[in-house]
């Protein structure tokens, strides 16, 4: 009988796939990163417990073009500064990706809030333009010009916080207790330049990042970077405490068997 491709894989095939994925070469990306101070109350409002605000109400947008051979990828992240159990990092609210392949692994393995979207990174001479768009709205745009070359930082480790969960089959809460994931990235940089410019946040009912306004722009850079990624579950979280925040993950409230806020149209 011809092989049935939906059939079970052999132990040898599974082991070979694991070995191949553990030996991936460095994958470099060109990315624009903007950081600003926002409204401290707004930053605190988007953090599900047990995450807490840090000493500064920082927001970060990362917009990257990843040069995968034959499979170029646009990847974005819009995150706020957060802390958990003495560890400071970032809590992403939305992570637009241009391909489904980049979506599924991050969402299913780590709990990343990834969604299909449009990601643009352009550099023409000294002029830089980057944006994140979904549903026809460029809800984040970073624009400016290169103003100086920066010294390269050494290898650094960064932490992102994710909540991994599955909505319940019967439409009430979750199938099991959600977990909080610390995702650790070891980052290397081979080029870094400062950009003098600005950040524009546009209104979108699907990606309401405009609620986290730019109060004080801290920095804009463009660089070439590579990083690895590994995650660990640090604790199970209170389902009732997380439930009011899971709408952050979806465009349509009905996807999570939840109604829109009272008073909304």
Structural shape: globular
Shape-level CATH architecture:
Beta Barrel
Largest sheet, in brief, is: 12 strands, mixed
Whole-number tally of structural domains: 1
Give the tags.
single chain; 265 residues; mainly beta; Acetoacetate decarboxylase-like; twelve-stranded mixed β-sheet; 4 helices; 12 strands; 46% strand
Task: Give a description of the structure.
The chain is mainly β. It has a single domain, classed as Acetoacetate decarboxylase-like (Beta Barrel). Helix content is about 10%, strand content about 45%. It is built from 4 helices and 12 strands. Strands 1, 2, 3, 4, 5, 6, 7, 8, 9, 10, 11 and 12 form a 12-stranded mixed beta sheet that branches. The model has no long low-confidence stretch (mean pLDDT about 90).
In short:
This protein has 265 residues and is mainly beta.
List the helices and strands and how they pair.
Layout: H1 11-21, E1 29-37, H2 40-45, E2 58-66, E3 73-84, E4 87-97, H3 100-110, E5 114-116, E6 118-124, E7 127-134, E8 137-149, E9 156-164, E10 179-201, E11 216-227, E12 230-236, H4 239-242
Parallel strand pairs: 4-5
Antiparallel strand pairs: 1-2, 1-11, 2-3, 3-4, 6-7, 7-8, 8-10, 9-10, 10-11, 10-12
């Amino acid at each position: 009988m011809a092989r049935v491709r939906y059939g079970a894989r052999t132990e040898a095939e599974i082991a070979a796939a694991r070995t191949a994925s553990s030996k991936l070469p460095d994958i470099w990306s060109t990315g624009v990163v903007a950081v600003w101070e926002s409204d401290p109350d707004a930053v605190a409002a988007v953090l599900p417990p047990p995450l807490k605000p840090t000493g500064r109400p920082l927001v970060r947008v990362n917009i990257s073009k990843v040069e995968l051979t034959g499979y170029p990828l646009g990847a974005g992240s819009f995150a706020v500064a957060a802390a958990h159990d003495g560890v400071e990092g970032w809590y992403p609210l939305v992570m637009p990706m241009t391909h489904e392949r980049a979506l599924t692994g991050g969402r299913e393995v780590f709990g990343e809030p990834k969604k299909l979207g449009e990601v643009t990174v352009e550099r023409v001479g000294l002029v830089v333009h980057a944006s994140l768009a979904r549903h026809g709205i460029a809800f984040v745009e970073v624009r400016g010009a290169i103003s100086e070359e920066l010294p390269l930082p050494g290898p650094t480790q960064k932490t992102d916080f994710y909540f991994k969960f599955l909505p319940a089959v019967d439409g009430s809460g979750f199938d099991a207790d959600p977990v909080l994931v610390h995702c650790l990235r070891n980052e290397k940089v081979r080029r870094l330049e400062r950009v003098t410019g600005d950040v524009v946040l546009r209104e979108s009912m699907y990606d309401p990042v405009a609620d986290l306004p730019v109060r004080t722009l801290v920095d804009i850079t463009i660089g070439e970077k590579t990083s690895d990624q590994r995650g660990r579950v640090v604790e199970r979280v209170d389902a009732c405490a997380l439930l009011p925040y899971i709408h952050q993950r979806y465009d349509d409230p009905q996807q999570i068997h939840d109604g829109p806020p009272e008073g909304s149209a």
